[in-house]
């Protein structure tokens, strides 16, 4: 069995630190607050939002979920975001994706004040990440959580060959920037990449965010590769699997399990970003 990276444990450790930061903020009279906007009745989105709300409550972070029917107008959502931008009790604003087709996701993300943009999707924050700017700015939580996880297992990424498969704005692109900022040599592969097998065979660290069950076999990777499986795929029989197939008994490779790898890190990192935004707001109040 390939050695497993314990995302659950690293996420629990992170939550202990977050809980202590929340206590300190509350002692100063500041309760961190996150608002989550959920549009429509997609069951997976409902579960994600519930999990985020539960995590916030457990840590003493105020959470507000605002739901809209799938038929809601863009204007209505924008008006709500404007209200949340102006509300001092709210430090973090998140719009759960996907949004219905008639809503322009870019308009919505751009309307969130950059200093409350907990997902790090606003162009201002994306730009800061890609420029490797000094100072604090929120970053996309899934890749940031992966960086925290990697730190435990590959403390120094300098000069490592890192391969990111999938180039979404949610995972692949910010992942590329974060690995680059950590001085790895990064390759970003996508559906038009021609020599993927060759790239896989030479990578020290591989991040797979494609959304296809068993897309990558561990046997295709180096004997000491570290593989992060971001994929969450539901098979017809109801089983939850990632993008990676572990076909390497007794290997020295490292792999994140699904579930129990990247997922718990994403939620814990979202909470981490929320309290960091609250800390920033308390400094500038
Ligand atoms: P997406 O569909 O937006 O992007 C998928 C990417 O994969 C695209 O850039 C595409 O070019 C690439 N791709 C598709 N086929 C390919 C191929 N044959 N070769 C190389 N690249 C190919 O997906 P996403 O939002 O980035 O999510 C990816 C997966 O990660 C999904 O399963 C999603 O559910 C999961 N996810 C998990 C978490 C978590 O917290 N665990 C967070 C976000 C996304």
TrEMBL record:
Signal peptide: none annotated. Catalyzes the oxidation of 5,10-methylenetetrahydrofolate to 5,10-methenyltetrahydrofolate and then the hydrolysis of 5,10-methenyltetrahydrofolate to 10-formyltetrahydrofolate. The keyword Zinc-finger does not apply. GO terms for molecular function: methenyltetrahydrofolate cyclohydrolase activity; methylenetetrahydrofolate dehydrogenase (NADP+) activity. Residues 141-281 form the Tetrahydrofolate dehydrogenase/cyclohydrolase NAD(P)-binding domain. This is Bifunctional protein FolD. GO terms for cellular component: cytosol. Homodimer. Keywords: Amino-acid biosynthesis, Histidine biosynthesis, Hydrolase, Methionine biosynthesis, Multifunctional enzyme, NADP, One-carbon metabolism, Oxidoreductase, Purine biosynthesis. SUPFAM superfamilies: Aminoacid dehydrogenase-like, N-terminal domain, NAD(P)-binding Rossmann-fold domains. InterPro entries: Aminoacid_DH-like_N_sf, NAD(P)-bd_dom_sf, THF_DH/CycHdrlase, THF_DH/CycHdrlase_cat_dom, THF_DH/CycHdrlase_CS, THF_DH/CycHdrlase_NAD-bd_dom. Pfam families: THF_DHG_CYH, THF_DHG_CYH_C. Gene3D superfamilies: Leucine Dehydrogenase, chain A, domain 1, NAD(P)-binding Rossmann-like Domain. It comes from Periweissella fabalis. GO terms for biological process: L-histidine biosynthetic process; methionine biosynthetic process; purine nucleotide biosynthetic process; tetrahydrofolate interconversion. Residues 5-119 form the Tetrahydrofolate dehydrogenase/cyclohydrolase catalytic domain. Pathway: One-carbon metabolism; tetrahydrofolate interconversion. The lineage of its organism: Bacteria, Bacillati, Bacillota, Bacilli, Lactobacillales. NADP(+) binds at residues 166-168, 232. The keyword NADP applies. It comes from the Bacteria. It catalyses: (6R)-5,10-methylene-5,6,7,8-tetrahydrofolate + NADP(+) = (6R)-5,10-methenyltetrahydrofolate + NADPH; (6R)-5,10-methenyltetrahydrofolate + H2O = (6R)-10-formyltetrahydrofolate + H(+). Belongs to the tetrahydrofolate dehydrogenase/cyclohydrolase family. Its EC number is 1.5.1.5, 3.5.4.9.
């Amino acid at each position: 069995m390939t050695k497993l990276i314990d995302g659950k444990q690293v996420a629990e450790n992170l939550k202990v630190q977050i809980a202590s930061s929340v206590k300190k903020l509350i002692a100063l009279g500041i309760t961190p607050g996150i608002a989550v906007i959920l549009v429509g009745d997609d069951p997976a989105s409902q579960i994600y939002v519930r999990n985020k709300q539960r995590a916030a409550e457990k840590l003493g972070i105020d959470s507000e979920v605002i739901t809209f029917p799938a038929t809601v107008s863009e204007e209505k959502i924008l008006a709500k975001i404007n209200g949340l931008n102006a509300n001092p009790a709210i430090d973090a604003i998140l719009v759960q994706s996907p949004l219905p087709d008639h809503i322009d996701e870019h308009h919505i993300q751009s309307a969130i004040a950059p200093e409350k943009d907990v997902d790090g999707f606003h162009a201002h924050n994306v730009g800061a990440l890609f420029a490797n700017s000094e100072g604090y700015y929120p970053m996309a939580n899934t890749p940031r959580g992966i960086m925290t996880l990697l730190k435990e297992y590959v403390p120094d990424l300098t000069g490592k060959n890192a391969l990111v498969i999938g180039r979404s704005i949610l995972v692949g692109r910010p992942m590329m920037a974060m690995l680059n900022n950590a001085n790895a040599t990064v390759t970003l592969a996508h559906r038009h990449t021609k020599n993927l097998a060759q790239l896989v065979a030479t990578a020290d660290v591989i991040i797979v965010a494609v959304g296809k069950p068993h897309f990558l076999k561990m046997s295709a990777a180096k004997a000491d590769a570290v593989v992060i499986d971001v994929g969450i795929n539901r098979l017809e029989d109801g089983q939850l699997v990632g993008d990676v197939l572990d076909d390497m008994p007794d290997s020295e490779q490292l792999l994140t399990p699904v579930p129990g790898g990247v997922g718990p890190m994403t939620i814990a990192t979202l909470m981490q970003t929320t309290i960091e935004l609250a800390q920033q707001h308390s400094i500038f109040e």
